[in-house]
Every structure is written in structure tokens, then in C-alpha cells.
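Good morning C.,

I know you're traveling, so I'll keep this short. The sequence:
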Amino acid sequence: MGQRIHFVVDPQGWCCMGLIIFVWLYNTIFIPKVILFPHYEEGNISVMAVLCYYFCSLFCIASLFRASVADPGKLPENPKIPITELEHWELCNKCNMMRPKRSHHCSRCGHCVRRMDHHCPWINNCVGEDNHWLFLQLCFYTQILSSYTLILDFCHYYYFLPLKKENWDVFVFRHELALLRISAFTGLIILGGISRLFYTQLMGIFTDTTSIEKMSNCCEDISRPRKPWQQTLSEVFGTHWKILWFIPFRQRQPLRVPYHFANHV
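The C-alpha cells, ready to paste straight into the viewer:
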């Protein structure tokens, strides 16, 4: 199943996503210029430290863009529902369309989304059945990149040897302290917020409960048997191969084919 492009026209979401991209560009440009490249040239760090930073940065921005444009699970306008499966469907009281149970209508996107978790303005998209795995990757790599940046900021002042060669005519080195303070400040804020969000997302997956169901306290399947955490994560990421859970450059194939999925493909 190919990944369909989903674009939401929402100025607020564009502003939020633009802010995230700005912070990413800031750290991707200034951190290597101030810390990685100078200390690499003087032998204080290895080339692997530089490559790992860029790999984390690449995976972070790739998961951001893919999560923002991926179809979260938008329902078709005229689904064909077999008579034997009618009990698994319900009528949306906002768009007057039939939808599978555990779907939700997003007022910002203007349509129902299969197993919708929430609408995230930071990716300007809903988080649903088809892009939840990308949102988890975004949270994970944002934590890694923020932690890596904070460690580099700390080591630059308290661990690495002082740089012998500095070009003080360059803007970056003239304002080195201010640039790194901004980097550390944004890194702490993002790391704190994303870590809490990532934890709640994992807990929701382990309990097979969406954020909307938690807030409404109306999950009708609350007594369903608890699945092993490996199985729930495999269903979200679309593969049992755990190494593929960390790769955003692939297509997700659902492991389970629910009653409504055949009509959606």
C-alpha cells in the first residue's frame, strides 16, 4: 500500500511546524560549526561523532516531513460496508458518514480518521492509524537529537580541550556563548516536552487506548485482553522486524487487516 499525501490547510499548524523546522535548522547549522567541526579538526572528537549527529538530524527531519504529509487514515466518502460488518460501524454525528468504531472526527481536518489519537499542530496533521508510527519516530529522534545537542553544549565548556584555532572575524565565533545558550535553552524545553509526550504515547499503545479515548473515558473495549507490548508496537509500525521500527524511509504494511481496511485500500 503506497503512502498517500495528506495536506492540511491550517495557518496555525504551519506556524507551529515552521517553528520546529527553525529550531532544527538552528542546531543543524550552528552546532557543527561551533562544536563538531572545530573539535574534529583538532582531534578532540572522532568522525563518528559528527556522522551520528547528522544521521540523527536526518532521521528527525525525515520523520517530521513524512508524519506531516502522510495520510493518517482518512475514511473514503462512500465506503462499501458488508451487511455482516454493520455492527462494527457507526454514524458520525458531525459529517453524517459511516465510520468504523474507534474512529474520530477531526474538526481541523474536516473528516473522520481511523483510530485517531489526536490532532498535532506541530506536524499540522492528525495522528491516526496510518501515520502513528511516523509520529513515534519523530518523538524518538527529537529526544535523541536534543539530548545529543545538550551533551555537546556541556562538553564544549566543561570537558573538551580549549580550541587552539579560532577565527574571531566570523560571526559564529564572536557570538559563540549566546548561540550555545540559545541551543541549550531550546534543547531543554523540547526534550522535556517531547519526553513526556513520548511516554504517554507508549503507554497508550501498550494499553491499546488512544488519547481521545483516555480523555473521554468512553472506550467500549476497556475489558479487551491486554496484548504483549511487542505485538502492539509491531501492529503500529507494521512489521515484526524491530530494526525497521527505527527507519522512516519505508512504507508501512498493516499486520492486521481489520474489517474496514479492505474497502479503504
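Safe travels,
E.
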